[in-house]
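pipeline: protein-struct stage 2 | run 1193 | ATP-binding cassette domain-containing protein
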Amino acid sequence: MIDIQGLQLQLGPRRLLDIATLRIGAQERVALVGPNGAGKSTLLRVLAGQAPAPWQGRVELLGQALAPTQLLRERARLAVVPQGAPLVGRLSARDNVLTGALARCGAWGAWGFYPASIEAEADAWLDRLALRRHAHTRADKLSGGERQRVAIARAALQRPLLLLADEATAQLDPRAAEQACAWLQQAAGSGALVTVLHQLELLPLVATRVIGLRDGRIVLDAAVDDSPALQQALRALYRAAPADDATAAADAPHNFHPLLTPSTP
């Protein structure tokens, strides 16, 4: 599913990523954690084909070897829930959700025509995420939390083999954040889920494996459990000195524009 060997990414004088090896299998549930600027979102950007600078090394994703300036050919099978949930503001919540199925509908989807089965699937997700009353509300009129839920539903309609989520729980209240963890797992389906997470109390709800980054390097890779050893390792990870401004800027929230609306085959 994901196979990384010798990944290095440098922006100016600062090395943002230095990952010797990382493998994530199909159906895995993985959380990326670490202090601000550790490289979590930058790693997601590499996987999404949105790296902030050319990188070196070997990255294989969904069976395809990526080049530093190359998007995934099978990008319809890669779904992204970016932080801030950028949507098409003039479209309704329902229409934004339906865009997740564009690649499944061919040319008809590009013209806004969807099979009844896909419309029913979109409505079911709107119900599941308590968005039905906002179905016909313009996306630019929704709250941040509502937009985040629309982005999760849109990703689900892609039926992805790999779902990348960048702090998808950040704009949600505690109860909604817990629900969002379940929604992300459901949206990933039988595919893999890799999510950037700062709310460590949510780890058991969204992941079975936790990868900790600091200064662009993997310093923790463990199963999610309630062991004192893991709790101690997480505390040590966040006691590290904060990264400098250049690293934090490169790892800041951003939009994964080419993946917001999957291209038709």
